[in-house]
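Re: weekly structure request thread

Next one in the queue (192 aa):
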Amino acid sequence: MYGIDGNSNGILAAVGYEGQVYYSSDNGKTWSQMHRESREYQDVAVSETNQACIVGGISFNKGFLLLTPHNQNPPTSAFDLRSFELCDVDRIGSMYYACGYGVVLKSANGMQWDFSSAENDYFKSMTWYNENTGWVAGYQGTILSTEDGGMHWHKLSTQGLPSASKRHILGIHHFNTQRLAICGNKVFSVHD
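Done, posted below.
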């Protein structure tokens, strides 16, 4: 399994490769498998209306987004195919954000997506403090921040971290608006 998310209604969803989707409607006490297919699901975000937004893919020209009720098998026509892999999806308030190969996307409903102005990197992870303030981290070592919901992005200093060719960032998490934790190949750091 690669991604898990839940909402305040006690709904949880977990996704993984080979189209694995598991859901729980009782805060994770019991789980049911939804479906299995040959899709590479990488992450999920569950809304307060119990919709699951799933992202995935395995390479260039093989990515997708999917918005579906958390406990229903989606029809093939529901997949929004993209020409880039997507690795992470987050829901903050009413907004969805997704990142992946060279892109950070934003959506108010999980169906229509807009590109943000994030600098090109293979974005593997993001974290959001609120609908305006967020960070995204790339496999090539880029760490970007936004304070306007992704309209503008600013590169953060990576002083003290391994060189970009060695850090390969795979995860990012915020403690507050000033402190981040990052992890990846040859790097684990708390960054102020």
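The helical segments are 164-167. The mean pLDDT is 87.
Next request, please.
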